[in-house]
Amino acid sequence: MANYVLTLPLKTEKWQEDILEKRLNIARQIYNACLGEILSRYKLMKRQKNYGLAMKMGKGKERNAIFNKIRKDFGLTKFDLNKYVKPMGQKFKQNLGSQMVQEIAERAFGAFEKLMFGEAKKVRFKTFGEFYSVREKGNITGFRYFQDRNIMEWLGLTMQVIIKRNDEYASKCFLDKLKFCKLVKKVIRGKNRYFVQMTFEGVPPQKDNHSISNDENARVGLDIGTSILAIASEKEVKILELAEDINVDEKLKRVLQRKLDRQRRANNPNKYNEDGTIKKGNREKWIQSKGYIKTKGALAEIQRKIADTRKQSHNKLANHILSLGLDVRVETMNFKGLQKRAKETIVNEKTGKINSKKRFGKSISNKAPSMLIRLIDNKLKHLGLSVKKIDTYKVKASQFDHFTETYVKKPLSKRWNKFEQGNIQRDMYSAFLIMNTKDNLKEIDIDRANSSYENFFKLHNKEVNRIKNLDKKQLSSIGL
User: Fold this and answer.
1) Where along the chain do its domains lie?
2) pLDDT band at 402 (very low <50, low <70, confident <90, very high)
3) How far is CA 35 from CA 76, 84, 132, 347, in A?
4) For residue 114, which phi and psi values (nearest 5 degrees)?
5) Using an 8 Å Cβ cutoff, are 346 and 358 in contact?
6) Which range, of 32-36, 73-77, 247-251, 326-330, averages the lowest pLDDT?
7) Inter-residue contact 390 to 434 (CB < 8 Å)
């Protein structure tokens, strides 16, 4: 069954905030204790002979059976961790319920599983003030909501939930079944703010200002890059910069990052080598001055604004895409791979200098293209659909010419395709081809592309004229 989340602010007083901070800190300590315990068991398990032999085996049922037995023998299961954390729940029962303590243990286990299965290189323990949320498993005990009084109760603590009088969306949400509630702390402009995230069962109600298409057959092709998105549909063709508004804070962010680094080095000279690198063997405590803490807070505020702006921009764009059609098609992209530095060292023939190994890490971090695709997919899942990911290596949309049915490899610097009918911007043409893939998502439907090309060409030229008339610096990747 699908779920969705409604976030509402809590009205809190100073004494209540002190209690919330105390309970979040207890939750942090429990999380760290669980993570430390399971990592100790994991290290012990890795020393066993059976584990080493299983690692050398090929993937298969026999190997999995050995791993599962070893994990059970060393208590590396969710059940064993819940058993380990049970005494902690008894000790802190006045501040955290047993269900919440179990959820914290399961969160630590989830972090460990990412490490064990190679999805993460390491796991991080939470430092003081870094634990921002706790949740219950249901709305029966502990942190729970009472709709008749519009309050949250949590083991003797009562907090008012703030709902605007004209918030019709929230009113519609409460018609669905409330599954569980989550307390979330956010630091906004240097002050702690507390929110409740309510998870409801079902499909989120549609907002009045959102006009999502009802046509499951209306296709939308997306050619997404590290910072640019091209859209092709029967209604319109667009090429847009992702999260365009976040560039406003980037300069200030870089200034604060450099200032923070200078302050950190000035406060901790013994932690650095003469060449400026950090001493690996030095375990002295890092010193944080008042100026450093102030700069750190200012940087965190900038990053919060960037994250909020990016999420708002992506949500708005996702809703617009779904208003064009519900058959959304996109190339499969390995954005994690694009974030990594280049392995090969290349010397520039003209200058004799080594080319930078940096690739698209900063752009992907700021624009978060995969986040947009995930938002679209989540919205489609509420309708029983999903984003259709085409086979990038077989379709090769950026190289294909549907007129001649041939593939021509082009350098990234070439942004336009030259056809008899006129020049076509490369990204928009790729989006057009993606829109016209067959249902097997492995090849272009030539007949469909030919029949829809005239409409695409007209909409493409309209979009090119719009971009040329924009009163701002053009995007170099578009080629205008």
Assistant:
1) 3-201, 219-478
2) confident
3) 11, 11, 17, 45
4) -60, -40
5) no
6) 247-251
7) yes
